[in-house]
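Most newcomers find our protein records easier to grasp once they have seen one. A learned vocabulary of local backbone shapes supplies the integers on the structure line. An example says more than a description, so a record of this kind follows:
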Amino acid sequence: MFIDSHCHLDFIDFEPDLDLVIARAYAENVQAFVVPSTSYQSWSRVSELKSTRSSIRAAYGIHPYFLAQEKFANLDFLEAFAAENSAIAIGEIGLDYWPGSVNYEIQKRFLLRQLDIAQNLQLPVILHARKSYDELLRLLKNYSLVGGIVHAFTGSEVQAKRFIEQGLLLGIGGSVTYPRAQKTRRMLKGLADQNFVLETDSPDMPLSGLQGKRNEPVNIAKVATIVAELREQDVDQVADYTSVNIIKLFKNWN
């Protein structure tokens, strides 16, 4: 069994054919999907998806890249909404220091408030980090979180070790399918089985050979195949232990 630990099935990209997308995934033994929200406006959509499909699990939060359209006051509703709508995590939250992104101090303010909420609810976090691993590590030291996932991790072996020491799993996705991603591949080879999970980040983060096409959860099987080859393991073994890692992390899974 595969679990896609990070896919945005609520995005408009999937509106025309979501049932077919999920059916294709089921056909490849992808049996569950974690859907993190990205904005205050998306919480209700993600919650509705979860309530209509038993294979979907929901996380609620505000993504750092979209903060220009957000009000800080929207976070006043997050704790209650997450508690009342079966959240398995707070997310997708984090820091995005890509050129042109929202002011860093504003990002930190949103992140710290959401980390407080995760800590209050004793929920894991789903973390977005782009060009910000070291700053995120520094901020996380001030929290006693119950775990989480660093989504789409492509950092160094040292950074991987530091996140793992803070009780976090690493999300491994499409980037590892590119032969040029030698640093990420080396890092992956050095991880223990219990330290990472698989993801697609659908509809984004296309796999090697599929550039320009909409990414889908069905592609988690292709990610797992590359992971298995790099780690010299059986693909079914990779599917099994990464699924166990996800279910163990998210205490509200069932």
User: Anything to note?
Assistant: The CA atoms of residues 189 and 232 lie 9 Å apart. The chain has nine helices and eight strands.
